[in-house]
Amino acid sequence: MIGDAERWQLEGDAPELYERYLVPAVTLPWAVDLVERVGVRRGDRVLDVACGTGVVARVAAARVGEGGHVAGLDVNGGMLAVARSQALACAVSIEWYEGSALALPFEDGEFGVVLSQLGLQFFTNRTAALREMRRALTPVGRVGVSVYSAIERNPATHALSDALDRHLGRGASHVKRSEHALADVEELHGLFADAGFADIRVETVVRIVRFASVAAYVRVQFAATPLAALLADRDPAARERLVALVIADVSARLAPYVHEGGLAFPQEVRIARATA
User: Using the 8-state DSSP alphabet, how is residue 204 labeled?
Assistant: First the structure.
């Protein structure tokens, strides 16, 4: 596994690497959790907003069966290309759309369920996006949205962010810290209320995320996320020196989470559910 980690920065582009390494370790377990909590069932019509490489859509497709329908939407064409290739083996076909969450290309009331995993915090207008989700729902439709909680409650991201600022310059961690920009429960609840949703419930959920090692975790972050841009203009030797410094720094912080089986750390997420 460590050998694979060494090659992550060399093989494939970021969306492919994201699907290969981050989806199994991080987003697939959360996708299963979200689909189960919202209660996706056979025959449902489901929309996955900010679908990325499509993991939530694929999990939902397995639940809705041939009588259901699943669509995925994302603004990133590269991520959608991977989503399309991964969905070829699904028993239920998934329709993919490239577009903005702020202007969903769907009719009013087209879906019974709208899901969005770990993306709402990045939207430029969160209330507008939630209103669009509500518009796309039937009058009795339901929504499920997840976002990361505070970075201080997510030790791996916190350790990595501090190491980035220390070794790559002040502000280098902005892209990682922004993942936690919608951590407050009251703020999240208020956004759903402002968008017109009812029966709003926000839960805090913790899962254990596993990587083969701290080095594996750090290297995939540099290869399969926007952090790759921090190293793009450096020569290979300089890149490796910086990555090694970050790995050493993060290893010291995450030592309590390293065991014989590798790295296992808690990750905390807020999950909001509501009805139209």
Answer: E
> DSSP code of 68?
-
Q: In whole angstroms, give the CA distance from residue 100 to residue 97.
A: 9
Cβ partners under 8 Å of residue 227, min gap 6: 164, 175, 176, 221
Quote the tokens at residue 43: 């025959």
Task: Provide the phi-psi class of 98: left if phi over 0, else alpha when psi is between -120 and 50, else beta.
Answer: beta
| CA 250, chain centre distance (Å) | 21
Q: For residues 211 and 25, give the distance between their C-alpha atoms in angstroms, rounded to a whole number.
A: 7
Q: Do 220 and 21 contact (CB within 8 A), yes or no? A: yes
* pTM (two decimals): 0.91
Structure-token match 């790559």, residue found:
168
pLDDT of residue 270: 98
Sketch the domain layout of the chain as residue ranges. Answer: 2-275
Which among 120, 229, 241, 237 has a CA at the least distance from the CA of 184?
A: 120
What is the mean pLDDT, run by run of 10 residues, along the chain of 276 residues?
31 80 95 98 97 96 93 94 85 90 97 97 95 97 98 98 96 95 97 98 97 96 91 92 97 96 96 97
Q: Could you give the C-alpha distances from 100 to 142, 187, 227, 272, in angstroms and in order?
A: 20, 22, 23, 21
Report whether 261 contacts 216 (CB < 8 A): no
Q: Strand 198-211 relative to strand 262-275: parallel, antiparallel, unpaired? A: antiparallel
Quote the CATH superfamily of domain 2-275.
Vaccinia Virus protein VP39 (3.40.50.150)
Structure confidence at residue 6 (pLDDT): 30
